Structures are given as structure tokens and as C-alpha cells.
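Notebook, bench 3.
Goal today: get a predicted structure for TetR family transcriptional regulator from Pseudooceanicola albus so we can plan the truncation constructs. The sequence was checked against the plasmid map this morning, with no discrepancies at the termini. Length recorded as 204 residues. Pasting the sequence as submitted so the record is complete.
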Amino acid sequence: MDKPVPRTRIQKKNIARISEAALSVFSTYGFRGSTVDQIAKQAKLSKPNLLYYFPSKEAIHTHLLSTLMDTWLDPLRALDDNGDPLEEILTYMRRKLQMSRDHPRESRLFANEIVQGAPRILTLLETDLKQLVDQKAAVIAGWMDQGRIARADPHHLIFSIWSLTQHYADFDVQVHAVLGPEKPDPYPEAEAYLVTLFTRMLTP
């Protein structure tokens, strides 16, 4: 089998430009509401030039999701089996909250994909994501069996961390509308609240 031809510096730069532009467009308009023309304009490339790298909108979207999935799973991978259970879970929660703060477009991109039934990443959800969540849920269940944290459903504990942290990215407009201009940064109070919530819930 022939080895893939290495990309040139210009090709790498243009793919990065397209990816950045696509992230902005897809996270704003969703997959269905986005067009190749919008992405090309955002990337400051001609449409034919963009299509040289990606043959379709679907190809760009799939590339984005697949390359971002590893980044999205890293905080859960970092949960240390040998660490202090409560501190590991709180650290995971903090990392997820920080990702919502630092990468809101990525969060909305995934949210839009899931709402549509995950047509482009369902296989990844059913394999890579499921295997990782099952593995970490087993670790959490072991901590509970040892009496080191209070008992709860490990999978739903992970789901609750996702929903309570990603909310601040996916519903950013709603959060700021409700809190008002006197609270322009919701994250410090959000972190303090979530630390209290999970500490009270998980302390034996």
C-alpha cells in the first residue's frame, strides 16, 4: 500500500483555515443552516480552492468532529484511577467547565450534531465514547463499593457533569440574558456551585 503523500506547509495552513472557519460557521448556524460558500468566505478562500481540500460540506463537518473528539474526551481520560475519588471527580468537572469557557464553539458543534441524531459520529459515540465512559464508570463504581464516595449511578453522574458544565457554552446567550450585565462572567460562581453540589452529593 502506498504511503499518503505528506502535506505541504501551505496545504496544512489552508486546512487549518478551513477548519477554523467551518467551526465558526457550523457552531453558529448548525450543519443544515451552513453552506460551503459561507465557510469559504469565512476562510477567505475561493470555493474551488476550498473544494480542492474537502469535496463537500459533509466532509468538512466529519473532519472537524473526528479531529475534535480526542480533545473532547481528554478530561475524562485524565480521571486517575489511583487518585482521591472526590477530588478526581471535581477535577473532571472543573476541566469540563473550563472547556465550555475556552471552547464554546466546539461544544455547540457537538450539541448540534447530537440534536440531529449524530449522523456523522454515531459510530464514534457507540465505540470510542462508550468504551471510555464504561471504563471510567467502572472505576467510579469501584470507589463507591469501597465506601470512598456516596453511591450513585456512575453513568448518570458522568451525564450530569456533561449537562451541568456544557450548559454554559451551549446556552451562553440564555445564561447571560438571565444573569444580566452585572454578572458578565458566570464561570466563577458556576464552579463554586458545582463544587458544593457534587461534594454534598458524593461525600459518604
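Residues 27 and 109 are 5 Å apart (CA to CA). The chain has a mean pLDDT of 93.
Flagging this for group meeting.
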